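ok here's D-3-phosphoglycerate dehydrogenase:
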Amino acid sequence: MNILVLGDYENIYSSSPAARMLHQKGWNLEAVTIPVKPEQIPSLAEGKKAIILVRERTPLPASVIDELHDVQLISQTGKGVAHIDMKALETKGIDIKTTPGGSRTSVVELTIGMMIGAVRQFPAHQEAFSRNQWIQHTGTELHGKQLGILGFGSIGQETARIAQALGMNVKVWRPTGGDGSEKELGIEQMTLEDILRTSNVISLHMRLTPEWTGFLNEEKLSLMKQGAVFINTSRGAFVDEHALARLLRSRHLAGAGLDVFQEEPVREHPFHDCDNVILTPHIGYVTYEVLERFADQALHNAANYFDKQ
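and the structure:
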C-alpha cells in the first residue's frame, strides 16, 4: 500500500508514530515537504491509494482529480475543504476523511494574542524599535470591552471562554441561528449589524463556503465602531482586504490581526503602509502539537479506511 503526503512540515508526518505503525503494516509513505503545483500531483500520485493533504497547502481542482487514477481516499487534515472540488471527488468515486478539532487550541491562542497585540499597538512599537526610537503609544485594556464573535463553532466557543476569563463582555452572531450553545456561557446573540456597531473587538470564526466569499465587504466593515479592532484567524476570502486597509489607514479601525488572506501564499497585499495591523502567514495551526495530532488522525483515518476493505 502506497500513500502520498503533500505539504509535510519538517517531516513531522513521515516521522510520526502513526507513520511507523503503517511501515510495520508494510505500507510505503512518500512525503513531499516542498509546495507542489496542482499539475504535478497526478504524476506524484501514480500508484498511490491515498493522499494525505496538510491543510489547504495543496489545492485539488477538478482538472487534477480527474487525473488521479489510483487514488481511493483523500485524508484531509482539519475540516476545511474549500480548496477541494468536492463534486469532482464524488464523480471520480474518491472518498474523503477529515480531522476536525485538531487545531482549536493553537488557533484560539493566536486569536487572543492578536487581540492583545492589536489593542496594545505591538506593530507601531515594533516599527519604532526597528528605527531605534523609544515611543510609548497608549493602548487600551481588553477587560471590560465587548468582544463580538462571528461564528460560534468550537474555535469561537473556546475564544469566548478565554475572553470571558479576561473580563470581556462577549456577544455572538451566528450565520445559521445556532444550537443555543452560547446560552450555556451566558452569551447574548445579536444581529450582525448590532454586533458590528457595538463591539470593541470583532473576531471572525466562520466556516468558509462559496456563498460567504466576500461576506465582510466595505459596507459591513464600515459599520464597525470608531476605534474597534478586527481579528481574522478563519479564512481570508471572507474579507474585502482593500476596504479593510482603507479603514485601518484612516484610523476608523484602531487595529487588526490577520493570519489569513485572500491569496495564499501572499504575493501582494494592501497593508504595506499600515502600522496598526499584525500580519502572520496562516500560522494558526502551525504548532508541533497540532501537526502531530493531524498526522496521527489523518494516517489512522487512512489505515482504518483500508483495513475495512
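+1. The two ends are 13 Å apart (CA to CA).
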